Amino acid sequence: MERNNQLHRQVALMRQSLFDQGYLDEQFVQLEELQDDTNPNFVEEVVTLYYRDSARLVASIEQALDNRPLDFNRLDSYMHQFKGSSSSIGGRKVKAECSQFREYCRTGNGEGCIRTFQQVKREYATLRKKLEAYFQLARQAGPRDTASRST
Amino acid sequence: MLTSQSHGVSSPKSEVTALVVDDDKVSQMIHHQLLNILGIENDVVVDGKQAVDIHLSGKKFDLILMDRDMPVMNGIEATKKLRDMGIRSTIAGVSSHSSSKEKQEFIEAGLDVYHEKPLSAAKLLSVVSKMKHTA
If you ran DSSP here, which 8-state letter would residue A35 be given? Predict the structure, then answer.
């Protein structure tokens, strides 16, 4: 019982740190609100789908960045989609880097795009690791009896 | 936790029906679950053409959540087509486009309301509360 309480406290702390460090925003809380008894792993499933589905977008952007001359319209279109998905799971830092990338597309700044895309990928990978660790711990802790969520 | 009762949508199965039109799998999943939790029976299609086709098959919906950018047929074309077909469902544009020109173009296609993605429970409830029941 005590061990379980400890695990739940760790889960809560880990969750809070994801918000405090700016990795997640309010949209993640909205996802948590959609979790219920019939879909107890909804958030993890959405995040898993996001990483699976966005992998092709990341590959498309990488390929497009290898082409010369750069097609900024195409790059912006891909990044618009990627930003939308990232925003849907509450990926705050990923979303911010996506916005920066789109700004460089608008101004036709190829170097800026290439540089920022490295940042996008870094934040995308970091968020994945952090969420994987969070979900793993949450699974260990098991369901909570009361939900007291705040960002 | 969201429930249909706590948010004024009649339960256990609401008489309201909805169609999610979106090519993005993450958005599909979120909107589908959001509607389920609110007790709103819903179908999901992946582009505007499928939205038109499902109506041609005879199905009707009170609410359509329409994404803007989709392959095959986008949300603007699909909205125009559905209005031309005489579909009077509440069509809520849900898009991540944010320029006022793009938003205006989408609204002028025949939307009843427009919301930026991601759609929250509060936004969806505000749409549902103003809805006309046509199904």
Answer: -
